[in-house]
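thread from #wetlab-drylab

HS: before we spend reagent money on co-crystallization trials with pyridoxal-5'-phosphate, can we at least see a predicted complex? here's what I'd submit
DV: go for it
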Amino acid sequence: MSTEFATRCIHIPEERALKDRYGAMTYPIYQTATFAHPGVGKSTGYDYSRSGNPTRDQAERIVASLEGAADALGFSSGMAAISLLMELFRPGDHLVIDSDLYGGSTRLFSRVGEKNGLSFTKVNCSQNEVEAAIRPETKAVFLETPSNPTMRITDLTAVSEVAKRCGLLLIVDNTFLSPYFQNPLELGADVVVHSGTKYLGGHNDTLAGFLAVKDPELAAQLRFLQKTTGATLAPFDSFLIARGIKTLPLRMRQAQENALAIAAWLKGRPEVTKVYYPGLPEHPGHEIIKKQARGFGAMISFETETKEFALRVLEKIRLISYAESLGGVETLLTYPLTQTHADVPEEERLANGITDRLLRMSVGVEDVRDLIADLEQAFGAAGQETNA
Ligand SMILES: *Cc1c(COP(=O)(O)O)cnc(C)c1O
């Protein structure tokens, strides 16, 4: 059986044993809440779908295989996965977190984590600020690379060295690159987080979250917490994720190719004052991402000359949608200030470059000529109105 990545997206090693008696090519959706037992003290391996469901197991096995994890756990959303991780900590514990994170994670930490007695120090992980923030009560480091939305790149090997030396759990949200481009567990992380809603699902049609865990003991502890708290991934959504992953390599390759072309186009536009894309050689993290990942992904942020221009572009795009989220086949344009990062305090937002002129694009897999044509007409129309 081949073990290459693209093959593992479609075939998992246990597949033959798992095939049903009709030879169905896709794994069945076990849409059931409970399972009958063959006898007292006997079990089929399943008893209740919150604790375990065959379709969810299938999606979890695939994600574990792609991240090189001992185990992976499926949740009803990315935030459910991150919330569950917080159950590992007790009042008084401290976490070092990246200052440039998905807005929902920042909100969870400041509005829920702090209420529960946790404390957080935000640092710029890409600038090696982690070690200085560590205290005796520090338990973990939480980061994203590339970060969201300004695509800062953190050297994972360097941070994992600090985390190991200080006995901290290193948690990496790998949503932006997906396991196709980056495997943080191989670079020293302990837990990888995914919003499966994004590239794993890939079609903007379901919410999902995953935790991929290196240590089997930690995985068992998280499994206990997962079945106890209950935000597990439903059977149908597990099926959608497993189906989406079959084309993950194809989608990631095409989206990145499109992103490289769009980043080059943006750079050539006079209305664009800054382009954040780690695939550009002048991006400050370009060499590090080349060293630790197999690609640059397909997320681009850019700043326009004025706020008015940025807002007009959002109104004038036709093929591209003005919508939050990312990682699907459709190209989306987001306004981080009021959408994904609305809950980040202003001072912090500005320090991180989240201005009122910043747009974030999740480049999809449409024909890139149509995407650029849409941007061209939107820029043209926005320019006319702004100048009028
Ligand atoms: C979307 C996202 C999340 C949250 O995931 P949901 O599935 O929306 O709950 C977490 N981290 C990153 C980087 C994301 O983009």
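DV: Residues 320 and 331 are 5 Å apart (CA to CA).
HS: ok that's useful, forwarding to the group
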